[in-house]
């Protein structure tokens, strides 16, 4: 079979088929298309303003490693005027987080960006290892999701950030849309598909997703072709089964019809709930730690309380739109 | 036998004793689908379902043939040649 030529430049050999468009393109055209699309998302969705301090959530995994690389590059190329910081969360898992934090530290040096690490043990007095020892592997993803979300906020506040940028990609968002659909949680279904969240509520920092329309396949291939240094391993604690099914469903669908990932996001964007039946939550401050919450105690404090009192965690705290512990 | 280079990354290396790259003799006249089945039977030590179901690669695992997306090369029907480098990259591990 003769090598296929790139459909964009018609000069170089094609090296991948783009999932969103089915086009066969070469490496150089892929880099431009990949970076341009992220720039378009940033511009079209008004993700940043000049002069802002941006905390980039850095886990050492593929998504955040590529995010740091691309944000740094686009910030210079298009003069966004952003001040970039890395914020990493140390959950306290021996042999898992240690290695990925090393990858973050290598990124920090390569891109010359300041890094702040916040740990569960300093924030909550519990490491994930200690939590799992106490509660077993059953609902550990719940704890981790709630704790991570708040820890990232704390780290970002510490460095004086205006916003948090996360590496959630199109596959992650499609998966969360499906999960919220299957739970009948339509307010979250709509919210999870927004490129900026937390804009208007309480004192939590806005979160932006520059990879909202970026396929996981392209993120991994970009990292591969550019030889970016990332760390890939599975969480040593069992992943949440429900999310695992949603993830596998998205991946199975991608093989049959790759556009479905971005179309799932488009569907969520068009979703509207009936204003007569949706009740607005009012947010206040947690009486214990001051973090925003719709109840007396925030989810992290509720979970912490249950850890310390041997009770089962409150059901209300078990639903989190954040990804589970294993990064999915 | 045919001599090929196999690469495992993105977490898949954990299924083959942590080996990221190996030079491997495989049976002659394999298709890539045949190679996937052969790897599953001969190299994968644990949790085989994370690699493939028989000759069908697990969705979410990217396959490159000499650094080119296998979707441009006929996927499972590609005929393996001596010296080929086949990379398996999982996209399913932590982001
Ligand atoms: Zn080209």
UniProtKB/TrEMBL annotation, chain A:
Domain tRNA(Ile)-lysidine/2-thiocytidine synthase N-terminal intervals: 53-235
Enzyme class: transferase
Region (Disordered): 308-328
Annotated GO MF terms: ATP binding; nucleotidyltransferase activity; tRNA binding
Transmembrane residue ranges: none
Keywords linked to the UniProt accession: ATP-binding, Cytoplasm, Nucleotide-binding, RNA-binding, Transferase, tRNA processing, tRNA-binding
Keyword Cytoplasm in annotation: yes
Keyword Nucleotide-binding among UniProt keywords: yes
E.C. number(s) listed in UniProt: 2.7.7.-
Major subcellular location class: cytoplasm
Locations listed in the record: Cytoplasm
Protein's pathway: tRNA modification; 5-methoxycarbonylmethyl-2-thiouridine-tRNA biosynthesis
An example Gene Ontology CC term for this record: mitochondrion
A biological-process GO annotation: protein urmylation
Top-level taxon: Eukaryota
Positions that bind ATP: 57-59, 63, 89, 167, 172
Family statement drawn from the similarity comment of this UniProt entry: Belongs to the TtcA family. CTU1/NCS6/ATPBD3 subfamily.
HAMAP family, A to Z: CTU1
Function: Plays a central role in 2-thiolation of mcm(5)S(2)U at tRNA wobble positions of tRNA(Lys), tRNA(Glu) and tRNA(Gln). Directly binds tRNAs and probably acts by catalyzing adenylation of tRNAs, an intermediate required for 2-thiolation. It is unclear whether it acts as a sulfurtransferase that transfers sulfur from thiocarboxylated URM1 onto the uridine of tRNAs at wobble position.
NCBIfam families assigned to the protein according to its UniProt record, in alphabetical order: TIGR00269 family protein
Protein known as: Cytoplasmic tRNA 2-thiolation protein 1
The organism of origin for this protein: Rhodosorus marinus
UniProtKB/TrEMBL annotation, chain B:
Keyword flag rRNA-binding: no
InterPro entries with a match to the protein in the record: Beta-grasp_dom_sf, Mopterin_synth/thiamin_S_b, Urm1
Cross-link Glycyl lysine isopeptide (Gly-Lys) (interchain with K-? in acceptor proteins) per UniProt, renumbered positions: 95
1-thioglycine: modified positions: 95
Record localization: Cytoplasm
Pathway: tRNA modification; 5-methoxycarbonylmethyl-2-thiouridine-tRNA biosynthesis
Superkingdom, taxonomy of origin: Eukaryota
CDD domains, sorted: Ubl_Urm1
Post-translational modification: C-terminal thiocarboxylation occurs in 2 steps, it is first acyl-adenylated (-COAMP) via the hesA/moeB/thiF part of the MOCS3/UBA4 homolog, then thiocarboxylated (-COSH) via the rhodanese domain of the MOCS3/UBA4 homolog.
Presence of keyword DNA repair: no
One record GO biological process: tRNA thio-modification
Key words, A-Z: Cytoplasm, Isopeptide bond, tRNA processing, Ubl conjugation pathway
GO CC list: cytosol
Entry similarity comment: Belongs to the URM1 family.
Function: Acts as a sulfur carrier required for 2-thiolation of mcm(5)S(2)U at tRNA wobble positions of cytosolic tRNA(Lys), tRNA(Glu) and tRNA(Gln). Serves as sulfur donor in tRNA 2-thiolation reaction by being thiocarboxylated (-COSH) at its C-terminus by the MOCS3/UBA4 homolog. The sulfur is then transferred to tRNA to form 2-thiolation of mcm(5)S(2)U. Also acts as a ubiquitin-like protein (UBL) that is covalently conjugated via an isopeptide bond to lysine residues of target proteins.
UniProt name for this protein: Ubiquitin-related modifier 1 homolog
């Amino acid at each position: 079979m003769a090598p296929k030529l790139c459909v964009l430049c018609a000069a170089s050999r094609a090296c991948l088929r783009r999932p969103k468009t089915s086009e066969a393109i070469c490496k150089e055209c892929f880099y431009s298309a990949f970076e341009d699309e992220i720039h378009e998302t940033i511009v079209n969705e008004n993700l940043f303003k000049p002069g802002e301090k941006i905390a980039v959530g850095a886990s050492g995994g593929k998504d955040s490693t590529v995010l740091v690389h691309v944000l740094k590059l686009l910030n210079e190329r298009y003069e966004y005027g952003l001040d970039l910081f890395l914020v990493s969360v140390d959950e306290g898992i021996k042999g898992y987080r240690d290695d990925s934090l090393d990858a973050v530290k290598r990124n920090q040096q390569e891109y010359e960006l300041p890094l702040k690490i916040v740990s569960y043990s300093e924030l909550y007095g519990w490491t994930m290892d200690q939590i799992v020892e106490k509660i077993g592997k059953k609902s550990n993803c719940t704890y981790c999701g709630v704790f991570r979300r708040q820890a990232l906020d704390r780290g970002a506040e510490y460095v004086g950030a205006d916003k948090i940028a996360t590496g959630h990609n199109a596959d992650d968002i499609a998966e969360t849309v499906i999960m919220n659909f299957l739970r009948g949680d339509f307010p979250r279904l709509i919210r999870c598909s927004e490129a900026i969240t937390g804009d208007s509520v309480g004192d939590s920092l806005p979160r932006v997703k520059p990879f909202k329309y970026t396929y996981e396949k392209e993120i991994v291939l970009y990292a591969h072709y550019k030889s970016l240094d990332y760390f890939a391993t599975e969480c040593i604690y069992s992943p949440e089964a429900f999310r695992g099914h949603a993830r596998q469903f998205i991946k199975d669908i991608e093989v049959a019809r790759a556009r479905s990932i971005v179309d799932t996001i488009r569907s969520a964007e068009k979703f509207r709930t009936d204003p007569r039946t949706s009740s607005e939550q009012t947010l206040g401050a947690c009486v214990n730690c001051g973090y925003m919450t719709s109840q007396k105690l925030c989810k992290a404090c509720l979970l912490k309380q249950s850890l310390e009192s041997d009770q089962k965690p409150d059901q209300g705290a078990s639903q989190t739109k954040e990804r589970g512990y294993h990064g999915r | 036998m045919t001599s090929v280079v196999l690469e495992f990354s993105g977490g898949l290396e954990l299924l083959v004793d942590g080996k990221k790259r190996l030079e491997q003799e495989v049976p002659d006249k394999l298709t890539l689908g045949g190679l996937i089945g052969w790897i599953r039977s001969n190299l994968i030590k644990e949790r085989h379902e994370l690699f493939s179901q028989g000759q069908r690669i697990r969705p979410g695992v990217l396959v490159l043939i000499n650094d080119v997306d296998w979707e441009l090369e006929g996927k499972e029907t590609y005929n393996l040649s001596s010296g080929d480098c086949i990379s398996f990259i999982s996209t399913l591990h932590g982001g």
